[in-house]
Write a structure and sequence with these properties.
With 495 residues, the protein is of the alpha+beta class. The protein has 17 helices and 23 strands. The termini are far apart.
């Protein structure tokens, strides 16, 4: 029996593919970056065909690096950038417009108009768990259908297909035989009712999205189709699909209510499992689907920070205070713990729980003895404080954080993880494998294919590399956090 799994991790700036074995060990990787298009202010687009080409090339590179062929693969799992919207011609498989990326803000004016409708924001949140925002797919689909001549009529006639990137890749892998998505990706469209687990007719009418273009929604572990034999030398079952942040949580084994992961990359996404109950946020967080297996839905609450690793990139490239992000750890270790300098990295506004797009960055509390190490440390600490902002909002919504499992590039920094534990007053766990996004897709596909028998078996594969325990007292924690809150207040936009 074949026991290798190909995991596709299609991200915002690059397409990656990794080969795992049935023990969850990474064996080979392929990666290709692709072009970012910025046709207008606040617009972000991708060429969906380039995404497909780079994904296929990455898959082939990963197999070559591992020394195996398609015949050795048991299954394929897909994880992807969420919300990014593609509309294509079913007959030709060609997109009718560039993909509109999750970061794109072209429909924000339309969203502002909709917010004037009494009760609409609440209705959308009740049905989808989401805030009414251009971030999600619904308004992007509407824009494409209105902008491309004849597209709306063709959509109604069933000639076009919509998909997030998972659906787009699946369509091409199966030679147009499968037009499906999974529940986690569907939950990010603002068209999917996450309580009733179906496309919502009222929302489809609101956003002018015809039912004929929508994909079938399946469990995250399901039979999605077979890849064409010509791609990898053999037809391979595609048996797992899940959005990237949910996949990272799955790869981290966050299967119990209260378990949470935080991914520290360019930004930061914190996802906390809330079990079988959808927890509606009163604090500007998102309710979403963590995963759906065997028709059973597990929910999560999610908060996002725009600037994590990106803050350190700015300190390195913008201010040129360091040559490499790795230098930051030693500088921070040499800085007193009662630092009163605060960097609020609101360069593109503030994300959850503030959602203040007009806030701007600030460096506060400087004195004559403030130097490079203090500014660098303030940058690192901003990640810890912003995470606490999310945890405080989650707690106010009634969810309790037990431990925090972390992944992403920044988690190599021991100083950050220790201070994270201190600021949160919670244990922070760094796993042996930090490639958790791709690993989650591999686990999901392997679960469907019988390589893994249960969530319990997958849980047992998670291995702790290091636990960081709180080492500061309550007075330090509250004094430092109060200073951060005061700094944030001074950066907020008025009104």
């Amino acid at each position: 029996m074949s026991t290798y799994i190909l995991a596709i991790d299609q991200g915002t700036t690059s397409s990656r593919a990794l080969v795992f074995n049935a023990s969850g060990n990474q064996l080979g990787v392929g990666q290709q970056e692709f072009t970012q298009h910025f046709p207008d202010n606040g617009w972000v687009e991708h060429d969906a065909e380039e995404i497909w080409d780079t994904t296929l090339a990455s898959c082939r590179a990963a197999l070559e690096a591992t020394g195996i062929t398609g015949a050795d693969l048991a299954c394929i799992g897909i994880t992807n950038q969420r919300e990014t919207t593609v509309v294509w011609d079913k007959a030709t498989g060609k997109p009718i417009h560039h993909a509109i990326v999750w970061q794109d803000r072209r429909t924000s004016g339309y969203c502002t108009e909709l917010k004037q409708q009494a009760g609409l924001v609440e209705k959308i949140q009740d049905k989808t768990g989401l805030l009414l925002d251009s971030y999600f797919s619904a308004t992007k689909i509407r824009w494409i259908l209105n902008a491309v001549p004849g597209a709306r009529e063709r959509a109604v006639n069933g000639e076009l297909a919509f998909g997030t990137i998972d659906s787009w890749l699946l369509w091409h892998l199966t030679g147009g035989q499968s037009h499906c998505t999974d529940a986690t990706n569907a939950s990010r469209t603002m068209l999917f009712n996450i309580q009733e687990q179906c496309w919502d007719e009222e929302l489809m009418a609101l956003f002018d999205v015809p039912a004929a273009i929508l994909p079938e929604v399946k469990d995250c572990a399901a039979d999605f189709g077979l890849s064409q034999a010509s791609f990898f030398g053999s037809a391979v079952p595609i048996t797992g699909m899940i959005g990237d942040q949910q996949s990272a949580a799955f790869g981290q084994g966050c299967f119990g209510a209260g378990m949470a992961k935080s991914t520290y990359g360019t930004g930061c996404f914190l996802l906390l499992n809330t079990g079988e109950d959808m927890l509606k946020s009163s604090n500007q967080l998102l309710s979403t689907i963590a995963y759906r297996l065997n028709g059973q839905t597990v929910y999560a609450i999610e908060g996002s920070i725009f600037m994590a690793g990106a803050t350190m990139q700015w300190i390195r490239d913008g201010l040129k205070l360091i040559d490499d992000a790795a230098e930051s750890e030693a500088l921070a270790e040499a800085t007193p713990d009662n630092l009163s300098v605060y960097l609020v990295p609101a360069f593109t506004g503030l994300g959850a729980p503030y959602w203040d797009p007009d806030a701007r960055g600030a460096l506060l509390g400087m004195t004559r003895d403030t130097g490079i190490k203090e500014i660098v440390t303030a940058g690192l600490m901003s990640v810890c404080y912003q995470t606490r902002d999310l945890v405080e909002a989650i707690a106010a919504d009634g969810a309790v954080l037990s431990t925090l499992r972390v992944d992403g590039g920044m988690v190599k920094n021991n100083y950050v993880l220790q201070k994270l534990a201190d600021v949160l007053d919670a244990e922070v766990h760094r796993p042996e494998i930090i490639e958790t996004t791709a690993l989650g897709a591999a686990y999901m596909a392997g679960l469907q294919q019988g390589l893994f028998s249960s969530l319990e078996e997958i849980s047992e594969k998670w291995q702790l590399q290091q636990a960081f325990k709180p080492a500061k007292d309550e007075s330090w924690r509250e004094q430092q956090y109060q200073g951060w809150q005061e700094a944030v207040a001074r950066t907020r936009s008025q009104g």
